[in-house]
Design brief:
282 residues, mainly alpha, two-stranded antiparallel ribbon, 1% strand
């Protein structure tokens, strides 16, 4: 048996899985996005009606802008928290046992369902919830704060809570690979702690930051249930737009929106990959 045939036989199972569970569903979504939907039926036809309506509606641009806003703010907070946690675990915790223990401690909240963790914020942030009760008992506010729940603040807070670990893991993994002799050399050369952080650690951590960024942006831009519950259905993102179309049985319109979202996410990832080669981390 030739080496080429052996290679094809080795990759064929994975190729079959990708074909059935990735390529074919995407092809089906793209195909359905060109179909026509009426109040009673879906007509297989090659038309651009769904895309014309999508790009011709000002609601689409507002929803996409809202999606980018959620993604950008969530990314900023998860990056700050994730980098800090990963830096502490990698450079300040000397014992491998403690590193593993503290890392597992960070993962404990993720052992439960995303929906349960997200909904748990509702009684905490509610008008009569723990947060408002504590603030009033401490004399910080005279009356409950309405913007703590069913607002953009609640949506961002839930996103950060749900997806911070996806930033911690790749950054921590990258930091653990940094040669400690480089840090010692920089310190011997007279570099301060801030200079070592900015000129040595951050550049060497870029692949991990980029992987975490891709995870967080992809998850936030595709999420819809968090926005629905934490905003009290007062706000929307692209995921909510798709969910609403599906609820109304407008599958072609939902498929068209999904195609545009997929293209947008792929463009964002392509731009991010221009800045750093993450293949070294994969």
């Amino acid at each position: 048996m030739s080496r080429t045939l052996k290679s094809w036989m080795m990759v064929s199972p994975l190729a079959a899985v990708l074909l059935v569970f990735l390529i074919l569903p995407i092809v089906m979504i793209v195909t359905v996005s060109f179909w026509q939907a009426t109040e009673w039926s879906i007509i297989p036809a090659f038309i651009f009606e769904n895309y014309e309506f999508l790009f011709g509606s000002p609601v689409t641009y507002k929803v996409f802008a809202n999606t980018f806003k959620y993604a950008a703010i969530t990314w900023a907070f998860t990056l700050g928290i994730g980098f800090t946690v990963a830096y502490f675990l990698a450079f300040h915790v000397r014992s491998l046992t403690w590193q593993i223990a503290l890392f597992l401690l960070c993962t404990i909240p993720f052992w439960t369902s995303n929906i349960i963790r997200m909904i748990s914020w509702i009684p905490f942030l509610g008008r009569n919830g723990i947060a408002n009760s504590a603030l009033m008992s401490w004399g910080v506010v005279d009356e409950p704060l309405d913007w703590l729940l069913f607002s953009d603040f609640a949506v961002i807070l839930a996103f950060v809570h749900l997806y911070t670990l996806f930033m911690v893991v790749p950054i921590f993994n990258t930091m653990m690979r940094i040669d400690r002799s480089l840090i010692e050399a920089a310190r011997d050369a007279g570099a301060s702690g801030a200079q070592i952080l900015w000129y040595v650690i951050v550049p060497l951590t870029k692949p991990g930051i980029m992987i975490g960024t891709i995870f967080v942006l992809t998850l936030v831009m595709g999420d819809f249930i968090t926005v629905r519950f934490m905003s009290g259905s007062q706000s929307a993102n692209v995921g909510r737009l798709i969910s609403n179309d599906i609820a109304l049985l407008q599958y072609p319109s939902a498929a068209a929106t999904a195609v545009i979202l997929l293209i947008t996410v792929l463009l964002v990832i392509a731009i991010l990959l221009r800045f750093v080669d993450i293949r070294k981390e994969l």
